[in-house]
User: Fold this.
Amino acid sequence: MRHDSSNSSSSSSSSSRGRFVVARHPLRAGDVACAERAYASALYPERAGTHCARCLSRADAPVPCPGCAGAAFCSPACRDEAAGSFHRFECRFSEAPTGFGCSQVARLALRMVTVHPRSYFLRLRDRLASPKEDEENGGNEEGKDAYVRVFSLASNNAQRWPEDNFRRALMAALLLKILKAGGYFSGKADISEDDEEEEEEGEPSEEEVFIGRLLLRNLQVLQFNAHEVYESLRGSRRALKPWKSQSIALAVYPRCSYFNHSCMASVGRTFVGDRIVLTCLRPVDQGEELYENYGPTFYMKSVATTLVSLGAHYRWRYQW
Assistant:
């Protein structure tokens, strides 16, 4: 997968504020502060027939998956790329998350693993064992492995209730079972009927435990860092109204997740397929922090109600 970003912003950190993003040079209203392709994305099931499962673009003439009815693609190229990546392991079990009542966060947590073979994560094992070093020193490295950035995003584990951690651990175990059944560890993407007979399982291997830990970490990180991907629909190309926003997927963006949020945002976000574009809403000085917005919730609720709901979800206390 390809990851790109603009050169208009850079990440920084401090002990009191954590990580944040500042402008590298003066920016005007309308300038792009950051643009990035998703590390991983998961299309909402109800969009499976209208959007591409790989790039999230509109699929006006959907190309079906030959192995399942749970995915369609905008082109044979996207279909083939997905078949050699995440869909190779998810194809036979594309409906399993729905059957188990999994949320979209769980689907994305699984996709964050299946976009790469296990050899990719095993190569990163030592770096993932000391994420603090990557958090502090790796923020500006364009060649940095994208998953290391994702792994080191805030998870607020110290503030979680034991029940929350237990539920997420159970979900990680379920996702690990899907990976095993899909051939992620054995290399067998297509399992015959004879192989589907239930066998007694022994202790999980060291590799399986490691990947299971990554799944749990993904579930923890996504609660605070996932972006909902949406598209804007208009009634006419010649008029802005009527207009509405439609959610199509959930995705994680390693660099754009470094942006703090504010009720008085300095950038707004739009999406082109799986690519996020953060555009300045007003002039920004060099070195000034860039803030994302909280979405329509701020405009549709009172300030007091907004702060209560956001604080409960993100586990922080708002400061003016």
Summary: Residues 1-5, 133-143, 193-198 have pLDDT under 50 and may be disordered. The chain has two domains: 1-38+255-320, 40-189+205-225.
